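Question (not urgent): is this output format expected?
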Amino acid sequence: MSLVATLICNPADPALDSTVVDGARAILPNPGPAQWLFDEVAVDIPFTGQIPFEGLDIRAIETRLRQARGDLPIDIVVQPQALRRKKLLLADMDSTMIGQECIDELADFAGLKAHVAGITERASRKPTENLDAYDYYLQGMAKVYQATRHANDDALRLFYKAIDLDPNFASAYGVAAWCYAWRMMNGWMVDRATEITETARLARQAVELGQKDAVALSMGGFALAFVMGEVEDGAAFIDQALILNPNLASGWLLSGWANAYLGKPEVIIERVTRAIRLSPLDPFTFLAHNIIGVGHFFAGRYDEASSWAEKGIQQQPNNAGAARITAASHALAGRLDQAHKAMARLRQIDPRLRVSDIRRMFPFRRPEDLARYEEGLRKAGLPE
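Got this back:
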């Protein structure tokens, strides 16, 4: 069997010489001539023989070579000659191969060193050091994306487990606050007062602990804006998240949504469209389509509003927000048959909803936006 022993060391600290190589060859059965790959740095020593040799397998031969090496800074690997030349090299970073971070050098050459350094820093930032907490967090996120009531309950349970393991886990607080916002949006709250109080606690912890955590700031900020009615402060937290991470698709989505309450329909559409461009296959695409519909609705473009909201319903049939906008848009456009059909779907999703609930559910800053929404839902057949 043809095998090869490779000895290699750091080029900055060469440790290979003929004495070391001769000592290694003396251990190997039927060694061939040494093949230097890089003087004093790397060498291949081919050898042949049956494995096991003298009762030794390949790993045991490596161990014997390492014992002979002593304290010299030399790495050793023994492998079949046929597998010696690799077709693919995997490295955790470019400095593993070339002794420096070439992305930093290229960024500097292009005049983007600080910008790229910021991206690198964000990518290496860990939301928690507790891997068990992070595992619960990831399981919770998978549930969040399902967007159903049962999945929402499961997600909250998982986020609370993550927080129990790491009480400083800002992202977990933020997404847990989002879960309560989603419960309110869909009429799933059981004890409204208690759940609103808990939302406030989670959201404030998120923005306090997560001053450098874009997910925590955006999710916590939205919960403050929507559930607590602190629209300006919540929107500011989301803006801060986007400064930290301009490529956070969910941040642009939530920013657009918050601007619905600030009365800025064109900003809604621009920001949510950006979110879709950043993540075209995002699990929350159904929500993005709905929010674009919201922007068109408050701009008085009811045909566009109903078209976008209906896309949201097609992607997520239990989307109460999309059903509301679809019904209200068709009603204000004079398409009452379609409005009534959408309202029937909404009543299936949220049978307790009444026109009188809209005022306390949505913190609109422009009175005309509230009046428009209530009028559309009333014309579509929502009880007072």
